[in-house]
Amino acid sequence: MDGARIQVHKLGDEVRIYTRSLNEISAAIPEIVELARTFPERTLVLDGEAIAFDSVGRPHPFQVTMKRFGRKLNVEASRTALPIQAFFFDCLKVGDESIASRPTQERFEALAKAVPAALLVPRLVTSSELEARDFYDAAIAAGHEGVMAKALDAPYEAGDRGASWLKIKRIHTLDLVVLAAEWGYGRRTGKLSNLHLGALDPATGEYTMLGKTFKGLTDTMLAWQTQEFLAREVRRDQGTVYIRPELVVEIAFSDLQASIRYPGGLALRLARVKRYRDDKRADEADTMDAVRKIYAAQAGAPKV
């Protein structure tokens, strides 16, 4: 589920909820506090996701769910406008005993006893590739990111998925045009690194920026692109070199999100470079029509 990671601590009627970065957010999501108080076990530590859904039960994009976090004022109004739900996938403590070091299967069993079935993240235990694929397809069809595959004999590893957890999610790719690049830092000093990525909007005949990324670049690619960018330089400002839109790069990304930062209203999420498309000219790259088509296909995506 593409929600906000939460950890719920319950001791009697006292409930505290923390984010992945250990910030307490209990006051921002009182409905989950109230929910946790109804659990019969007096002492619990639960791991889960908080997520908001639209009127037809489809999950909102991550950035919409995150509007509920960090709220200190008008919490009740926010609660009414954007109700949030909790789903749990792990149990770290039940009663006076920590069970974090126990195998995943045992923690699942403890979780199922502590939390109503409707509040559990759906899961499947199988050795069948076909069943696993059907389960994944159902998660995608419901509007979620994908699935987490977990080893049944693994202990809980705080702060790290480790080798016993595997995130399996859909990946999109687009062939985009490099519009500019920023000078790197650290080991990338002297190299043009952070790419400004764009797509041609057929309606305007102009390139529309969709985001930036420096992920996926090897040392060889950094050296090559610095030379190629400088050969195409049209202007620069402090830290950024703007180039002629001639180079096409294949970008992998998890999804698109609505954005007020860019004129096109859309931004890439978790973008990384796969390769340069030296077999494609800029006029053969994907346009904003293709970008908008992907965004429209995302479950729960509002129109832009």
Short description:
The chain has 304 residues and is α+β, with helices and mostly antiparallel strands. It is built from 7 helices and 16 strands.
Structure description:
The protein has 304 residues and is of the alpha+beta class. The protein has 2 domains: 4-169, DNA ligase/mRNA capping enzyme (D-amino Acid Aminotransferase, Chain A, domain 1), CATH 3.30.470.30; 172-297, Nucleic acid-binding proteins (OB fold (Dihydrolipoamide Acetyltransferase, E2P), Beta Barrel). Helices cover 22% and strands 34% of the residues. The chain is built from 7 helices and 16 strands. It is elongated. It starts with a strand and ends in a 7-residue tail after the last helix.
Give the tags.
304 residues, alpha+beta, D-amino Acid Aminotransferase, Chain A, domain 1, OB fold (Dihydrolipoamide Acetyltransferase, E2P), 2 domains, seven-stranded antiparallel beta sheet, 7 helices, 16 strands, elongated
What is the correct CATH architecture of the largest domain?
2-Layer Sandwich
Total of DSSP H or I helical runs spanning 4+ residues: 7
Instruction: Give the mean pLDDT.
Output: 91
Here the CATH topology of the largest domain equals D-amino Acid Aminotransferase, Chain A, domain 1
Computed Rg? 23 Å
Largest sheet descriptor: 7 strands, antiparallel
**Name of the top-level CATH class of the largest domain:** Alpha Beta
Q: Report the sheet-strand fraction.
A: 25-35%
Helix percent reads 10-25%
Euclidean distance between termini CA atoms: 23 Å
Secondary-structure-derived class: alpha+beta
